[in-house]
Design brief:
The chain is of the alpha/beta class. It has two domains: about 5-265, Nitrilase/N-carbamoyl-D-aminoacid amidohydrolase (4-Layer Sandwich), CATH 3.60.110.10; about 270-530, Rossmann fold. The chain is about 40% helix and about 20% strand. It has a seven-stranded mixed beta sheet with strand order 5-4-3-2-1-14-15. A hairpin with a 2-residue loop joins strand 10 (about 205-210) and strand 11 (about 210-215). It is elongated and about 90 Å long. Pathway: Cofactor biosynthesis; NAD(+) biosynthesis; NAD(+) from deamido-NAD(+) (L-Gln route): step 1/1.
Amino acid sequence: MTNQLTLVLAQINLLVGDIHGNCERILATAAEAIQTHDADVIVYPELTLTAYPPEDLLLRPSLPGRIEKAMQQLCEARLSATLIVGHPLFEKGNLYNALSVIADGKVLATYRKQCLPNYQVFDERRYFSEGTEACLLDINGVPTALTICEDLWQTTPTRQASQGGAALMLNINASPFHTDKLEQRMELLSRRALESGTAIVYVNQVGGQDELVFDGNSMVARPDGEVRVVGPAFEEALVPVKFVWPAPPEATFSAPINYTALASESSLEQRCYQAMVMGLRDYIRKNGFNSVVLGLSGGIDSALTLAVAVDALGADHVTAVMMPFSYTSDLSLRLASEQAARLGVHYRTIAINDIYSAFSSALAEEFAGLPADLTEQNIQARCRGVLLMAISNKKGALVLTTGNKSEIAVGYCTLYGDMVGAFSVLKDASKTLVYSIARHCNDVAVQAGELPVIPYGVIDRPPSAELAPGQRDDDSLPPYDRLDCIISMYVEQDMSAQAIIDAGFARDEVQRVLRLIDINEYKRRQAPVGVRLTQRAFGRDRRYPITQGWRAGD
């Protein structure tokens, strides 16, 4: 006897904490999946009702009642399809990361996540208790196992499914993006399918949540290990997949759309750009705003930030402000104006000379007899920060900072100056990656018959903060190709000073860069959140004490 299931993978963008709104979204998308695809089963992402990660909202005393009310609403809808929905489960004094199977107006089964991640950006052991039992049930004649996210990365839940005779495993996820995560997931699904002889459906959340971006890319794996990416990257989708059992391996799954080539062959630059666009768009809109303002300097960082903002929000919702001073070059003025006109954003020029003079006059007595130093450069940056925040307050547009990971790592940024803002698009993008993404953006535009989104003069000029006459970044820092390698090895790979030196870098240079990274933790703690692109971003990923006596290389 052959059994066939039409599964719809609900790769949707939810709002953390909006339990009522998320419940309504489940019902609306379920109705669409039933009407459009004649769905038998609709599978939603991990912690669907709260969205992921809810963090300390899980500790709020009213949460159990809200979850119970939402679950009751889902049951009372009595939809014709079976729902697989993730939610927190409060049970006998414990809190579980759970999923429930809802059909015929009731909960047929509930599974409690067994493997709780507690690394990188994950800290589920802070909140949840571990489940201990597998969950297998018959869905329309198909023996089906249920698992949640990290369960797939460990061997026990998959072995339980295989030993229980499952033909199909449904795995719901909230798996955030980083640069090589897609390939890691595909390799994992292939391995688990081969190990268990079980077909796997992998449904992932999509959308931005503070610094995390969930990239979707939902997948299916056949028992022979072949993996197909059926959900698009960085987009919502209701993806219908037919599962036939029993059947020869080549007939196990069929789907009308296959995104495998697009997903697996997209470049690093394309993925990072899409993540930045989605992260910014969702941060702005989910927080109730609709516009942004940023300082446009004629340099590469602000130029790429502007391009991302336009793609995320539309040109009408973006204001760029050039704030020249005595050291601002004519080239910077021309390039900033050219890009603003090319992208069609609102553009203003507000010189800071008089503002700087006012500060200098007020501080003249305090600074008497003291030589000029970085203080005067920082005042310039802080003048600009005051202007941007004033525009933000008056017009309700959130300020975007434009600093990159290289600068934030070594403290080449000014507190309450260029660090002022609500969101940092480039926070986890090294300077070398910023250049690479900028070139990619221009290549895409030119191939489409359009003008480059970033003037080539911006990309070709030597980077400079223009806070002093003739200033260049490499006057204060190692060349970015070396600096970024050292930062990556120390921050992202946790390599020791000696290991970095052994990799071919000069001892003095390594010790200086590592020292700068360590002593500037206090700045990073005061920096805005920004899009996570790597496996080790500053913020949730890397938690070092500000006050400490550790010396790298000892």
